[in-house]
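Supplementary Text 2. Reproducibility record for the structural model of the 370-residue chain.

All settings were left at their defaults, and a single model was retained for analysis rather than an ensemble. We include the record here because the model underlies the residue-level annotations in Supplementary Table 4.
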Amino acid sequence: MEKIVVFSNMYPSPEHPTFGIFVENQVGLLQSAGQAVDVIVIDNPSKGKLTTLKKYITWFCRSFMYMAKNRKRLSLTHAHYAFPTGFISLVGKKMMGIPYVVTVHGGDIDKMAAKSARIANLTKQILQQAESVIVVGEKLESDVIGRFEVPESRVHVMSMGVNTSIFKPVSKEEARKGLGLSIEENVILFVGNVIEAKGLLELVEAFALLKKSTPEVELFIVGSRKDTNFFEVLQTFIREKDVKDIHFKEPLGQVDLAQWMAASNVLALPSHHEGFGLVALEAMAAGTKVVATNVGGLPFLLGGGAGILVEAKNPVSLAEGLRNALDSASMLMNETVIQQKIAENSYETILQDLLSIYRSAGKGQVGHNE
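Retained model, structure tokens:
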């Protein structure tokens, strides 16, 4: 069987088990189907100029050496994030003739490409030279085709998928019993990096507004606090607002996260920008309502009654959305649409779509057992 190699600047490690876990999950999905996959990745989220420079130079060198050694056995490379990761695949194609696929996740288009004209031009070249460009949401599809002039025929919308064997409906009573939560309390859950762009300042303010009409409510914030400066700002903001019942938890493994999602009344995702919103899909699969901002790929995922969309950077709108979600009588979700979204993004569907893209892009037989 022809081998592929996955490049990513985000990948989990024992010390950082949730860092780029969606990439690891996709690699595992491919391997479970019998596809030979190697990974050359960065699994350390540490920042700082010297640390970042060292780890990226090491990663680029390892990647280049790997391609040079394995060029005859490689069918293709798959880069997660257009820049900087896609640059490795671009070099592999130009110097060694190895075709590549690149997955655009959002930040590489919305933020990284906006840093400078040089990065924007490199991003455009990376996307245009790829055999296929995978985008995790419809908004990114229009950006890649319109802004970066990639032919529509080479752009594929495909999320990272939801593992429905883990994220599945469990009774609130059962889930809460295992977590030691009161069955009567209203529970709002946030899952994601504790950074400003995730809308956490607005979430805290919205929660403070919600507490005035719904005092029996708690907010759990689950995620990495790698931006220590913002975390201090957030803590100060909470004290200034004098709002109680906000709890912080470190990142969780997927089994534990699924239990928290099933135990919660609502998942809040107040992001300023979001390529797709995988945690929203996971919450839907766990049978939990989602309140999210109307940005990026979220209106495509939550439209048609699959969730509640609110205005970005607007605590009043967010508070109203959360209040409506907690009022089960007034806000019923469209279960048919929800199940359709889950089916479209299940691991089974994603695997077949991904292998099909690989077969079209690769120079050898990909995705077939020998």
